[in-house]
Amino acid sequence: MNRLLLREQLIQFLNEDIGRGDRSTAALQGQKAAAVITAGEAGCFYGETIVRETALLLGWTVEHVLADGTGMDAGAAAARISGTAADLLAGERVLLNLLQRLSGTATMTSRAVQQVEGMGVRITDTRKTTPGLRMLEKDAVRAGGGVSHRGGLDDVCMIKENHIAAAGSITRAVELIRETAGPLTAIEIEVETESELREAVSCRPDVIMLDDCSHEEARRWIPIIPDGIRIERSGSITMETLRDAALPGIDFISIGALTHSAPALDLSMRITMKEAVR
Questions:
Q1: pLDDT in tens, 99-110
Q2: By CB neighbour count within 10 A (0-12 exposed, 13-18 middle, 19+ buried), where does 202 fall?
Q3: What fold characterizes domain 3-112+263-276?
């Protein structure tokens, strides 16, 4: 987690919401308050650093906050904070928006990880993240027990169908990457057919992704891939089909829904007024 980047992002998010000033709290200046963020449903919490950095920016005191990845029952207190009522209300919506969305990602990831527990398969995210929130969404996946796929286009070289089309073949795409990317750059090849798979194997990449294939196709294709090349499955895999997709030999299953479709976790914030600040 890059806390400097997080702080910059939080400043932008708060500026977007506060604008020229919170008109709704004009009468509350100087009033002390405490607030509790409570889970409305069971889930996996994410956002400890977000709470602490928001508190630093807005002058709150953090009395308690759960660690990332902590499981919560409905009614559990995720965080307790205090400050002036105006300052608490200025950050309430931005904070809850982030905590709800990211705790939803952590929760879905945790449930996916539980589905394949003991099967030797790891759950990973994708680049299908919200622009501007990739760092946080991927960190929420890790908090839920998953692992991060490549961070961006400057990370692992991943050859997909459009790269193959542009280069003319899998073999040519790999040759071009090895000429330009350097010997330490890992290469992953996405395949959709058995003929593509066999060509990919001949190129000896680090990872081969079996994309959008049936369970029967995956069973036939896995033995074709030699030891030393890791295997990823992706595409059309749901929570209901995840365990069936985790066939022996599969190292990773990547799920775009962890970051683009995870339901927000129900979290709310309630304020209790205290005495006026003297």
A1: 999 999 999 999
A2: exposed
A3: Aldehyde Oxidoreductase; domain 3 (3.90.1170)
